[in-house]
Amino acid sequence: MAALPGKRSGGWNGCMTSSAATPVIDVERLNVRYGDFHAVKDLSFQVGRGEFYALLGTNGAGKTSTLETVEGHRAASSGTVRVFGRNPRERAAVRPRTGIMLQESGFSPDLTVRESVRLIGSLTRRTDRVERLLGVVGLTDKAGTKVSQLSGGEKRRLDFATAVYGTPELVFLDEPTTGLDIQSRDDLWDAVDRLREDGSTIVLTTHYLEEAQQRADRIGLMHQGVFHREGTVAELTRTLPATIRFALPPSAPELPIPATRESDGTFLVETLGLQKDLHVLLGWAEDHAVELRELQAGPTRLDDVFRSIGSERAA
Q: Of 19, 92, 98, 251, whose CB count within 10 A is highest?
């Protein structure tokens, strides 16, 4: 895949200039209402230059309303939203610096792939080479194919190509890998990595939580219009215990640490001291010649944090 042009300095993890220290996105006490329904409630957050920020949420959390407002597609009911220091609805000032990959972009079915990239690219007021982009997303051999003849995965790659035309400073990726095979996913994330190397700021929304867990610098987790939690993956997951799971033979002696027997007969240990408790358990198994079958141990994952929201609602 080809390299992305227009390399810039001042990324989130690099040497920060004064301009780089200014948030690319600054949301303060955002409210979005639809009649009597309060979708987003006094939401505040910032995204720094060069940062990879994931905005995630449970169904109906207000994530889409928040993004539509930040992208300039919707007016806030109240509060302040700034992108590059400007109101995102000032399209002439903000749009040329921003790339947006929507869940469905709605390309004209009668245009070819090449024509679609050229058309959308011309609207951004950025410069790029169509053939380079088609190489980035693996659509070179589909350049003359009409959009109506593309598969779902090919359309997603076309969505990505038009979003990153001219290497925008800020890129919104809304469910970017839906419908992509494994190789296409890897290729897309390779291209995103190069965007970040060039200084672009990335805002991701996805239902593939492992993508956010592996890549995001910070995550805003929305629930019922507000942030349930916000922070790094480590900060989000350390609020819940790590787990150890295993099965035992019927003749095994009493365990040395508290454990819950699950419905399938396996044992679950929830612990805030994973290394210590695992050491105790392994030592006990060695001393008693017990095999810990199907042993699994690890820290809390992001999907566990999502599940905890449902538990807190039920409590």
A: 98
